[in-house]
Specification:
Elements: H1 25-37, H2 47-59, E1 63-67, H3 70-80, E2 88-91, H4 98-104, E3 109-112, H5 124-127, E4 135-141, H6 150-160, E5 163-167, E6 175-176, E7 179-180, E8 187-191, E9 204-208, H7 211-221, H8 245-255, H9 258-277, E10 282-284, E11 291-293, E12 298-303, H10 305-310, H11 313-322, H12 338-348, H13 357-366, E13 367-371, H14 379-398
Parallel strand pairs: 2-3, 2-4, 4-5, 5-8
Antiparallel strand pairs: 1-9, 6-7, 6-11, 8-9, 10-12, 12-13
Helix pairs in contact: 1-8, 2-8, 3-4, 3-7, 9-14
Bound molecules: pyridoxal-5'-phosphate (PLP).
């Protein structure tokens, strides 16, 4: 057997993967146009208007409202949906901390419902038992770019009189049964932060098909003004949550490459699932056949239970990284994040812990990540990844594995 790179052997790969961001003349030209126009902010609304229309149309939504970032986008969506301080919001714990902090920002209380073991997406069956008289909304997260079960979640939300918000920060362009994410539920939020599949450095977008919700989000984001109203006509408490014309210019450039990049990520994602699926000790995630387009912001895969119990995940990661493959460990389950728990305690007066064994185990022991830029490589790059994983797993299975 080949010696592992970490033990002095030759790494499977030394070539770098595609760099991120990717940009060109369109972004350059757009930025200069904004610069020379003198309309730099969020009220000039030339590029912003065009972006909102194009982005909403791309997802089949009636309305798009740009905001400063994805986090504040979720906050504005929750508030527009009528969620207030003290209300409970059910969400998965396997997500970026912003899903929870967006609610905590105004005193709403996250309640964590576990994820499905084979998709790591919010498990609809875990949602209903957590609904109380205080529950106002469900936030589902299309984690890694895979749409969650919108059919089932919509049914639950409708039957229990709850609002359904899609945290689509990782899922630009993804589709569930042919429908673009973001406007399948009541409201959907997106992020244009540097790592995301559409990148403006920072930025965000909210989509909805509901005119009233769109107007409310717009008003919250524009210091309580009303569309068509006067400059100093503030009809509710709102804030300046606007994005700038510069960001919109960059995003209009980025959007022209989106289809091509999405197709490439899909192709490579499917190939990786085939290659990694053949490796003993690896479990690939299940892709629901109703996902008609996966955004692959991340490629996630798991160590098989027996491997995860025998070898420390951090050690597997170190060894695969040494072979030249940039795998990473991903999240700490939010239901175990001490800062989140402290804040919930200060809001409710109780030490509330929602056990989410599937998410906790996925975070601590099983799940590995590759970032979206890796999926912009070619077919041979995917074979390198599989070769490195195979090499490390074979060594883990054989001899002096490091115990967890
Ligand atoms: C990135 C991200 C956010 C927050 O977006 P920002 O633009 O960084 O504020 C929220 N939820 C998820 C799942 C994310 O990945």
């Amino acid at each position: 057997m080949d010696t592992l790179a970490i033990d002095g052997g030759t790494p499977v790969r030394t070539k770098p993967f595609p760099q991120w961001p990717i940009y060109g003349e369109l972004e350059e030209r757009g930025l200069l146009e904004v610069l020379h126009s003198g309309k730099w902010g969020g009220t000039g609304r030339v590029k912003l208007q065009e972006l909102e229309e194009r982005f909403a149309a791309y997802h089949g939504a009636a309305y798009g409202i740009t905001v400063a970032n994805g986090t504040i986008g979720i906050t504005a969506a929750l508030m527009a949906a009528g969620v207030g301080p003290g209300d409970e919001v059910i969400m998965p714990p396997y997500t970026f901390i912003a899903t929870a902090t967006s609610a905590l920002l105004f005193g709403a209380v996250p309640v964590f419902a576990d994820v499905e073991p084979d998709t790591l997406l919010l498990d609809p069956e875990k949602v209903e038992p957590l609904i109380t008289s205080k529950t106002k909304a469900i936030i589902t997260v299309h984690i890694a770019g895979a749409p969650s079960d919108m059919t089932r979640l919509k049914e639950i939300a409708a039957r229990r009189g709850l609002r359904l918000i899609e945290d689509s920060a990782q899922a630009v362009g993804a589709r569930w049964e042919g429908q673009g994410v973001g406007a399948i539920g009541d409201l959907g939020t997106f992020s244009f932060q540097s790592s995301k599949n559409l990148n403006a450095g920072e930025g965000g977008m909210i989509l909805t098909n509901d005119r009233e919700l769109a107007d409310r989000v717009w008003s919250f984001s524009n210091v309580g003004r009303v569309r068509e109203g006067g400059w100093y006509q503030h009809e509710r408490i709102g804030w300046n949550l606007r994005m700038t014309e510069f960001q919109a210019a960059v995003l209009l450039g980025q959007m022209t490459r989106l289809d091509e990049q999405m197709e490439k990520r899909e192709r490579n994602g499917k190939l990786l699932t085939k290659l990694l699926g053949e490796i003993e000790g690896i479990r690939t995630l299940r892709r629901d056949p109703r996902i008609t387009r996966h955004a692959y912001h991340l490629y996630m895969f798991k160590l098989a239970p027996e491997v995860a119990d025998a070898v420390a995940k951090s050690e597997v990661i170190r060894r695969i990284q040494a072979e030249g493959i940039p795998v990473s460990a991903g999240y700490v389950s939010l239901n175990r994040n001490e800062a989140v728990l402290r804040e919930i305690e200060s809001l409710t007066g109780e030490r509330r812990v929602n056990d989410c064994p599937v998410s906790e185990r996925a975070c601590e022991k099983e799940t590995l990540w590759l970032h979206q830029n890796v999926l912009l490589g070619d077919e041979e790059d995917m074979h390198d990844i599989a070769r490195a994983v195979q090499k490390v797993l074979a060594a883990c299975g054989s001899k002096d594995s490091v115990r967890p």
